[in-house]
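Figure 6 in text form: structure in, sequence out.
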């Protein structure tokens, strides 16, 4: 499967989900990383007109969870986020943010991801650690 087909498949999972509501779109798949983007506008603002931390957290968990699922060799597994820690370092009023998930640890039952959220100028907006548990499909 080429990159375009892979991204199309990943983006098809967003239909009728929070990811679709937040306009999250997968944009890149590397050898060990996945990146998605999200527009920053009034739909993801908090009352002071800046990017809501919850929207950033949703973006980070989305990218990290999809990365766990995508890089699993066994297809009879399901991924669930069990811990999310995020630090918001810079505010953002408009434009686009990009979240890239990179592995810290990929074990048989848990994955730990670092997710960096940056803007169009590569400024670090938020940084996140996400722990996923890998379970058998029921």
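Output sequence:
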């Amino acid at each position: 499967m080429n990159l375009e087909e892979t991204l199309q498949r990943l983006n098809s999972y967003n239909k009728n989900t929070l990811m679709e509501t937040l306009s999250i779109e997968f944009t890149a798949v590397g050898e060990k990383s996945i990146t998605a983007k999200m527009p920053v506008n009034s739909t993801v603002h908090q009352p002071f007109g800046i990017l809501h931390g919850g929207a950033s957290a949703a973006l980070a968990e989305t990218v990290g969870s999809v990365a766990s699922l995508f890089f699993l060799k066994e297809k009879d597994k399901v991924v669930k986020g069990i811990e999310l820690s995020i630090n918001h370092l810079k505010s953002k009023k408009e434009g686009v943010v990009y979240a890239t998930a990179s592995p810290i640890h990929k074990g048989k039952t848990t994955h730990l991801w670092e997710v960096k959220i940056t803007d169009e100028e590569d400024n670090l907006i938020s940084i996140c650690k996400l722990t996923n548990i890998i379970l058998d499909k029921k």
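Caption detail: Helices lie at 3-12, 18-21, 53-71.
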